[in-house]
Specification:
Blueprint lengths: L2 E2 L1 H4 L8 E12 L3 E5 L7 E4 L7 H6 L5 E10 L7 E12 L15 H6 L8 H23 L3 E2 L5 E2 L11 E2 L26 E3 L4 H11 L1 E9 L12 E10 L3 H22 L1 H16 L11 H10 L3 E4 H10 L1 H4 L16 H12 L3 E7 L15 E9 L3 E8 L4 H10 L8 H8 L5 E7 H9 L20
Parallel strand pairs: 1-2, 4-6, 7-11, 13-14
Antiparallel strand pairs: 2-3, 2-5, 3-4, 5-6, 8-10, 9-10, 11-12, 12-17, 14-15, 15-16, 16-17
Helix pairs in contact: 4-6, 4-7, 4-14, 6-8
The structure holds 4-amino-1,4-dioxobutan-2-aminium adenosine-5'-monophosphate and magnesium ion.
Magnesium ion binds next to strand 16.
């Protein structure tokens, strides 16, 4: 008989029909009640067995973590919290699990401990919910852009460019690193390397995305990106997934509108399609918040926070206005910021972004027109000569979730800027071609996928929303 998924069984009307179910045992009580889970939902299916008809040998093997198959009759459940249960006619152990050795005991484990056993944490309620939500969000991203007529482009993972110009790249080589070939000047001779030049893992697919946008008008990428920045924080990964739309004939306003619409679309999609998981995560967060002192608890539950983002337009503010707000804030005057805000031109730290969003505006904020010195070379220069048409979207509890800009489409201005900051034009000649042939105002942004998942799941550490996190000094599994 075909196996049914527990998610579907739980919404079936019980009419004494015979069904087969397979899954992993979460708990086994009184030699009678198995709580079975197959990952299709956070809810377990209760399988009731008659221990008089099951050999002692089999009963002993129904342990937490074991894979089992049950065939039986679907009946209304008398127990609390479930509408149906299975009265088993036969039960079979598919894969044993030694209860003594199984690391996941049926009790509450800390997230830190679960991170160490990330190969098993998928089987917990929390991570089950997190990764089902992650899956939905990824699907929603594709659905959104597909409905908008965007082309999905696969940009390379190995590349020779540094799209952000920040030098945070992982090198890719197949040299014997203890003994690489040298040229006559004693430098490493990359001409002899696999690609005949120095290469690295991509930090962003944007530059290649721009090439495609100059033909298809509207494109997006959704792929892994890599940054060798030594930031050991709850918001940084060395390997993360980024969504990068790029739009021809598009200015900063259009870009902001698109980003806002997209974020609201995918959040709404998750709320509608992962209601139970998000309710579970919302409760989880409330429990966690109870451990904190009253004044540090968030004013809204996770569900309220998500709904709030859908109901409110994001606040649009210039960098210059933001600096004024921060400089004049009591927080700054009382020296509560680790980095005090004294002058125009400083880069904003996560604490400043979160102050603006959580304390001042109390809603998502789009910050625009940053000083050119703290932004990438490709951003469009504003008339004032000091700022560029950049936009960062800041979210409560997260800080920066999106970074984007209108691009500098004027060849001369772009070349001059590259020269100023020492980016050799020869290396990006192909990129400059977009400005030579049919250049036009265009714009795009990058959404850090894990930061989005953090926001929607209410988890607090980015290591808990990607299956196998890569961070400084950590590359397990
Ligand atoms: O602001 P970033 O560096 O922008 C770019 O890479 C542009 N090329 C995007 C574009 O315009 N097409 O990164 C974009 C987003 C950030 O806002 C953040 O959400 C996420 O990527 N991000 C990270 N997420 C996790 N770990 C890291 N180390 C991240 N660095 C950036
Ligand atoms: Mg950024």
């Amino acid at each position: 008989m075909a196996r049914l998924r527990i998610k579907d069984i739980l919404t079936t009307t019980p009419e004494n029909q015979q069904i087969t179910v397979k899954g992993w045992v979460r708990t086994f009580r009184n030699n009678s009640f198995i709580a079975l889970n197959d990952g299709s939902t956070n809810n377990n299916l209760q399988v009731v067995i008659d221990f008089n008809n099951v050999p002692e040998e089999t009963l002993k093997r129904i342990t937490t973590g074991a894979a089992v198959q049950a065939t039986g009759i679907l009946i209304p459940s008398l127990g609390k919290g479930q509408s149906v249960e299975v009265k088993a006619e036969s039960i079979e152990i598919i894969g044993d699990s030694d209860a003594e050795k199984y690391p996941l005991q049926p009790k509450k484990h800390s997230l830190e401990f679960l991170r160490e056993i990330a190969h098993l944490r998928f089987r917990t309620n929390t991570f089950g919910a997190v990764f089902r939500v992650r899956n939905s969000l990824a699907f929603a991203v594709h659905k959104f852009f597909n409905e908008k007529g965007f082309l999905y482009i696969h940009t390379p993972i190995i590349t020779s460019n540094d799209a952000e110009g920040a030098g945070e790249m992982f090198h890719v080589t197949n040299f014997d690193i203890a003994n690489p070939p040298k040229d006559e000047n004693g430098n490493v001779d990359y001409k002899q390397d696999f690609f005949g030049k120095a290469t690295n893992l991509t930090v962003s697919g944007q530059l290649e995305g721009e090439l495609a946008a100059m033909a298809f008008s509207d494109i997006y990428t959704f792929g892994p990106t890599f940054r060798a920045e030594n930031s050991n924080t709850a918001r940084h990964l060395a390997e993360f997934w980024m969504i990068e739309p790029e739009m021809a004939f598009c200015d900063l306003q259009d870009n902001m509108n698109m980003a806002e619409e997209m974020l609201q679309y995918v959040i709404r999609y998750a709320l509608e399609n992962n209601k139970e998981d998000i309710e579970f995560l919302s409760q989880r967060l409330e429990e966690e918040e109870k451990q904190k002192p009253q004044n540090e608890r968030s004013e809204m539950t996770l569900l309220q926070k998500l709904q709030f983002c859908l109901d409110n337009k994001f606040e649009r503010v210039t960098y210059t206005q933001a600096i004024e707000i921060l400089r004049e804030s009591n927080h700054n005057k009382k020296k509560k910021f680790q980095y005090l805000v004294n002058e125009w031109g400083v880069d904003l730290q996560s604490e400043h972004e979160r102050y603006l969003v959580e304390k001042h505006f109390k809603k998502p904020v789009i910050l625009i027109d940053y000083p050119k010195e703290i932004k990438a070379f490709y951003m469009r220069q504003n008339e004032d000569g000091k700022t560029v048409a950049a936009m960062d979207i800041l979210f409560p509890g997260i800080g920066e979730i999106v970074g984007g800009s209108q691009r500098e489409e004027r060849l001369e201005k772009l070349e001059t800027r590259m020269k100023e900051i020492g980016i050799p034009a020869e290396e990006l000649d192909w990129y400059l071609d977009t400005r030579r042939f049919g250049s036009n105002p265009h714009a795009g942004f990058g959404l850090g996928f894990e930061r989005l998942v953090l926001f929607v799941t209410g988890m607090t550490n980015i290591r808990d929303v990607i299956p196998f996190p890569r961070t400084p000094k950590n590359c397990e599994f």
